[in-house]
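#structure-requests
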Amino acid sequence: MGNWERMRRAVLLLTSLALAPPMVRAQPTSGKGQPAQGAQVAKLARTNVKTEWEAFKNKDKKAYSDLLAEDFLAVEDDNQGQRNKNAATG
């Protein structure tokens, strides 16, 4: 399995987790009718995953690499263990 196939699977997993329906029924508010900080963080995470997916889908390795944290680690199903940011985007 190629690197792009493994990254595609990892991005699909992250996307499905980020877009999964929330476990609570109502959005908590901060008391002023504004969504609580957790809801804002969840929205930001969904936006980031969409941006990462677009970079991955367009095979833009530089943009994808720029979106990953410096301490990024991934584990794939190819028995080669952990991959850092450089190995995942290389």
